[in-house]
Amino acid sequence: MSESSAAPSGTATPDAEAPAAPSAPPVADRRPTSREIHGLTRTDDYEWLREKESDDVTGYLEAENAWTRARTAHLGDLRQQVFDEIKARTRETDLSVPTRNRGHWYYARSFEGREYGASCRVPVTDPDDWTPPQPAEDCAPDEPALPGEEVLLDLNALAEGHEFFSLGGSAVSLDGRLLGYAVDTVGDERYTVRFKDLTTGDLLDDELTGVMGGVTWHPNGVDCLYSTVDESWRPDKVWRHRLGTAQADDELVHHETDGRFFTGVGRTRSERFLVVAVGSKTTSEYRYLDTHAEPGTPEAAWQVFAERVEDVEYSLDHAVIAGEDLFLVTHNATGPDFELATAPLAPTPASGWTPLIAHDPSVRLEDVDAFAGHLVVHQRSNGLTQLRILELGPGGVGEDYLVEFDEPVYTVGSGGNPGFAQPVVRIGYTTLAVPSSVYDYDVRTRELTLLRRTPVLGGYDPADYEEHRLWATADDGEQVPISVVCRIGAREDDGGGTRPVPTLLYGYGSYEASIDPYFSVARLSLLDRGAAFAIAHVRGGGEMGRRWYDQGKTTRKKNTFSDFVACARHLVDTGWATPDTLVAEGASAGGMLMGAVANQAPELFGGIVAGVPFVDALTTMLDATLPLTVTEYDEWGNPEADPEVYAYMASYAPYDNVGDQAYPPILAETSLHDTRVLYVEPAKWVAKLRATGPDSRPHVLLRTEMAGGHGGVSGRYKSWHDRAFTLAWILDRMGLAGTTPR
Prior knowledge:
alpha+beta; globular
């Protein structure tokens, strides 16, 4: 049976001969199932597509892939051109800026022609010099980049024989002798941890399976801690493993039985405390273990710092201020935008926390990094990220100031700062036009030194591009920020005025996740053909503080969708774009956003890209056995328990609200092994879109990666091809498929 006729029965196509290109889109069988909830009957024609191992389901997905290939065959040359552009702009053999940790400089390498890179280190030769070593510019792939280079992990070797490969967490023991690393070769984010003796290069016999992410080393160098997940993919247990013993003998440190809460494990930068974090979307609780405590004393056991209180979130770190050991607590017990407080090294309720930075409704405190001589506070104000330095001295906290940058719209953060005693802060910086940049800020001298700006080959110059911050007025009068970038002159018409340009509008708007301005090499294939790129910073995200998130969740979720529509209308009304060449894109919860705006304002868009889209939200949230459902109640509500929540979700869930109206072309992209948003959601959505339209909606496409996870395929060249496919489709929708890039 050919793929073109496989859809009704769902049978798979044999591999013996290449099938002919289908002449019509697949039509999935209608196999109605019904459920009564809150006195209402909900019928679903396509729930059968959830049977992942069924030949019918596999056949349907393959038939959809065949239809997508047929409908995009004319873009083959453009896809290759975009891939070539991404490749040509990328320095394929490269080295990250080395990060100093204890006695070594650690860095990552990439190599021309190889999908994956390597993690390496070299010894620190001068303990007083914090300047990262610089490799030779012409370093060959098979030569050491720096003298004394030690390859910790060769990811190409680890990935050999696997269609999918992802490295999770990797961590070196505090004495530098052992490496624990986690790999996923399926895409389901359930990792296997192995241990490597860095002295001999040999693998230890220990193997930990079903791990979430990686391991955290105990300072003793023989124990490590890790998390595992339950059947609904919720990290619910923390274990302590002793090298040389079986995983079955590991000690259970904490088992979180409340289905709304995740758990994880880490270590303070000072290396004194191990911490187990437990948190829902709205509530936190920390346990800590003082590794300096005398064995057998109460302090040597795990202790709860502050018992969970509903809707109180906090984080915990260790600092030494004016010679006194303290806990740093970033919390929202006194206000929604958080304050920074101190507490003694003992279990302490919120009433015993002493403010260090008081709550300010105009400044959202997000995190704090503690060092011996300073604190680094991550915050945001007026939609922009900021780094705030608090210098520490014999008398306590001294100077308090922001690290300043010139561009009006940017993203800044600190990372790669593992050393408690280090006098410099490693800073990451980017804008929509400025490639990712790495700085060192020396707190002693207050000097900001640019260490590296990600090279963009081919003569790229940020000065050739213009960036803007626009503000759209939402339905309720709220001002919603939009970040925009395009080439200088792209909007100029022949008469010296401005003209609209094809625009890609990106959005997310959930979980208080902020989509801050960032640079993308692949995006240049749009900009250099005359398009603009914009980010709609809609409610549900965290760009404008905690209230921004609170106003875009649960029973106010529709603000996320109406904000995005308002941003699209603002771009059209102010002459930035026209509906026929305005393309919308979002992924995961942003894919839900795409499904919602497709239902609510299809006339505003010339195309919509929905990546791993959470479009069947009501079905998922009605099934507590599915991955992540219970932990998501604080985000979306519990429609199974509350009829009002059910009615509200039913009024916006994209799958439930597909209608007989004119939809723009839609490209839905998913992965078979995604455990966060199951492939079945976009599969059902596309099937219903087809069945509801009078013409089977041939312009609605489903593309399923059969060997990938939530992030799609693995390997950088595969990822470039993957993105080139999407960008070629977007350029076609913009009318720019035949345009020569500048």
